[in-house]
Structure formats: C-alpha cells, structure tokens
C-alpha cells in the first residue's frame, strides 16, 4: 500500500518509536502512585517528556505541559475551561470540528458570543479582518496553524502580535503543523498550544497535550485520581496535575518522546524540506491533468504537506475508492471534519481527495500516485 493519508495519522513510525512503546509496556508502572522501580521509571519518563516538549515548542516551564489523548481533548479542555458567560471568541472558517463543535455548544448555551472569520477563494484568512473583529469583550482567538484540507498555514507571529496588543488570549491548534512547521511559543506569543502526537510528531494514537501560559488558569475538564492530595474533596490546583486526572497513557507517551527525539535528530528543517519536495513534485504534475482542480495557496513553502483536489464533477469518494481498490493508494475524501472550509471552497457536495505526505514517503510513491490520477482522469 502507498499510504498518503498522513494528515489523518502517520502510518509509518520510526523504529525507535515502536521500540520505546514495547519497552514501556514491559517496564513502566503507574506514575506518582508508588516508590517502587516501575512507578518511579514511569514518573521519570513523564517528567523527561514534558521537558522535551517544552524545549521543542520553546515554552517557559515544563510543568505547563499537560498530557491528553490528543488535540480534540486538549481543545475541549481549553474551550470549556477558559470561557465564561459574556466572553467573545474569534475563530475561522478553516477550523476543524474539534474547535467548532465545542464553540457551537457554548454559543447555544448562551455562554459566549462567536465570530467566525471568512476565508478567500484559496482558503486564506485576512489578518486585517482578524484585528477588526476584536471587541471589548473578546476573550480569545482560536486558530489552526495549518488547515487539514488545504494545507495553508497562518503567520503565527503576526497573529500573536495582534492578540497581545489587544490583550486577547491566543490559542493555537497545531494538529497538522506540529513536527512539520516551526512553532515557537515565546517568539510567536502563543498563550495556549494544543497538539496531537499521532501525526507529524510520529507518536502513537491516543497521545497529545497542550501548553498553557503560566499566567492563565483553566478549569479542568476531568477530575479524579491524581496520586496526590487523596483526602481533599477538590482536585489539586498545582500544574500539571490540575489539568490531568487518572492514569496517563505512559506507554503512548514513551512513543511520543521517541518521535520527538527522531525529529530533533533529523531536524525539523530537513523533514519539512523532504515533505515539501514531494508536495511540489505532486502539485506541479497533477495541475497539468485535464479536469483536475487543486485547492489552497501554493505560493509559499510555509505550509503543511497536503494537496487536495477534485477531478471534473466526479464524487471525490469515488476517486478515493478507485485509488485504494485499483492502485493500492490510501487517501482521504469527504468533509475532513472541517465543514466551513468546504463551504468556502465550494466543495461541500463533491468534497475533495486529500493527499498528505510524510517524511517516510518516497518520490517513487508520488510518481505512482500521479500516474494513477492521470489514468482515472482519462
């Protein structure tokens, strides 16, 4: 199988990630629940991974790294734990349902006012329009670093300056960009960063987390066992325990740690360069195929390794099925859990076929996908 669905989850993991998970399954116990070797080894693993993530994203304090099951849980924690009645929230049409649905729910409960910024025909936002949308009661701005449909990325540093100038909390969904595009929490003035482990970070599914500015307090999404303050009726307030409850996915986090170490060893720049070379080859060739329409802004290389397209008026699920059944090529069609961007692009009914590339894909695989599209288009 030629796997080109890496924006859903990276199938090919570094060998070191697989080995790390296997080692953890054999050695680590429950963190902070005992003084025996297995528990201490687990606690040490979590501590080192928090430090590694904090350094990777250039946060201020590793204790502000909170582990979750992925970006969806992180975003739900932040959106529900930050906002109160009367708050105004700004987001965009490029967002995933992991952002939209929690916001819609708070809006329906009349807790927040919501502004959704439009995008242009290429799926890009207006930075001027973003600043103009800020009101006196604007509490936060929530935006995806990279679109999971077009691959377009936003300028985090520019947005961070706008948010800081207006005293608005800047929340970034990095599900598609972490491990592919550079993220610098302090330089880009990001207040809260939500990330997932199973995509560009090469970790297992069920891993992820968030970084929270030390000046920001969030209400926990879950409360329960913490390993400390057992006889207190309330959940601990010390970070990161304040936002973590129950047994963490230590086995998965071991794999996440190995994934980040792999990226640091290869360098983010070399990984992105390889992925974008595949994108460029694919993009330039498929644009020449009669009937193919490609969506997104390809004028910059500061983007996620995604190319989404349609062929004539054919239903994109049919194209994706043909690619899988006749050519052994895995892609993704449908709404991609991002309904508003499809409305903006005019692809709500037809949807698009998304090709998403990873460091482990090859030029030969890309050429095979190009040839398959030529034959299907004919």
Tell me the layout of helices and strands.
Blueprint: E1 2-3, H1 15-27, H2 37-57, E2 65-68, H3 71-82, E3 87-92, H4 97-108, E4 112-117, H5 127-132, E5 138-144, H6 156-165, E6 169-173, E7 192-196, E8 208-212, H7 250-266, H8 268-286, E9 292-295, E10 306-311, H9 316-327, E11 329-330, H10 339-345, E12 353-356, H11 363-377
Parallel strand pairs: 1-11, 3-4, 3-5, 5-6, 6-7
Antiparallel strand pairs: 2-8, 7-8, 9-10, 10-12
Features:
3-stranded antiparallel beta sheet, Aspartate Aminotransferase, domain 1, 378 residues, alpha/beta, globular, single chain, 7-stranded mixed beta sheet, 11 helices, transferase
Task: Describe this entry's structure for a reader.
- It is built from eleven helices and twelve strands.
- The model has no long low-confidence stretch (mean pLDDT 96).
- The protein folds into two domains: 2-11 and 267-377, Alpha-Beta Complex (Aspartate Aminotransferase, domain 1); 15-266, Aspartate Aminotransferase, domain 2, CATH 3.40.640.
- Strand 5 (138-144), helix 6 and strand 6 form a beta-alpha-beta unit.
- It is α/β, with parallel strands linked by helices and 378 residues long.
- The strands form three sheets. The chain has a seven-stranded mixed beta sheet, sandwiched between helices. Strands 9-10-12 form a three-stranded antiparallel beta sheet. The protein has a two-stranded parallel ribbon with strand order 1-11.
- InterPro entries: Aminotrans_V_dom, Aminotrans_V_PyrdxlP_BS, Cys_dSase-rel_unknwn_funct, Cys_dSase_SufS, Cysteine_dSase, PyrdxlP-dep_Trfase, PyrdxlP-dep_Trfase_major, PyrdxlP-dep_Trfase_small.
- Its EC number is 2.8.1.7.
């Amino acid at each position: 199988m030629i796997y080109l669905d890496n924006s859903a989850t990276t199938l090919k993991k570094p060998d070191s990630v697989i080995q790390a998970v296997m080692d953890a399954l054999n050695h680590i116990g429950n963190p902070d629940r005992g003084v025996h070797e297995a528990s201490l080894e687990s606690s040490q693993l979590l501590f080192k991974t928090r430090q590694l993530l904090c350094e990777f994203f250039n946060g201020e304090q590793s204790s502000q790294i909170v582990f979750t099951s992925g970006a969806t849980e992180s975003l739900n924690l932040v959106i529900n734990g930050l906002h109160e009645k009367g708050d105004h929230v700004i987001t965009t049409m490029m967002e995933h349902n992991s952002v939209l649905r929690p916001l819609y729910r708070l809006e329906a409960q009349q807790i927040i006012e919501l502004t959704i910024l439009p995008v242009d025909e290429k799926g890009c936002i207006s930075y001027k329009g973003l600043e103009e949308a800020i009101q006196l009661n604007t509490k936060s701005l929530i935006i995806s670093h990279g679109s999971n449909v077009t691959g377009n990325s936003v300028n985090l540093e520019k947005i961070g300056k706008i948010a800081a100038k207006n005293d608005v909390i800047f929340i970034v969904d990095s599900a598609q960009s972490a491990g592919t595009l550079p993220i610098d929490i302090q330089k880009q003035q990001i207040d809260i960063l939500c990330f997932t482990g199973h995509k560009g970070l090469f970790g297992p599914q069920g891993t992820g987390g968030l970084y929270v500015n030390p000046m920001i307090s969030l209400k926990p999404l879950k409360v329960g066992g913490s390993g400390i303050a057992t006889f207190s009726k309330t959940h601990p307030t010390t970070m990161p325990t304040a936002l973590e409850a129950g047994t963490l996915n230590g086995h998965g986090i071991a794999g996440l740690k190995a994934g980040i170490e792999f990226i640091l060893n290869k360098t983010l720049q070399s990984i992105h360069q390889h992925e974008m070379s595949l994108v460029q080859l694919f993009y330039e060739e498929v644009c020449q195929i009669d009937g193919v329409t490609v969506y997104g802004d390809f004028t910059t290389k500061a983007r996620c390794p995604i190319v989404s397209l349609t062929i004539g008026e054919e239903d994109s699920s049919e194209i994706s099925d043909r690619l899988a059944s006749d050519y052994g090529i895995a892609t993704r069609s449908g709404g991609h859990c991002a309904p508003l961007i499809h409305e903006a692009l005019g692809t709500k009914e037809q949807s698009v076929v998304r090709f998403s590339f990873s460091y482990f894909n090859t030029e030969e695989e890309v050429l095979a996908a190009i040839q398959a599209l030529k034959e299907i288009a004919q």
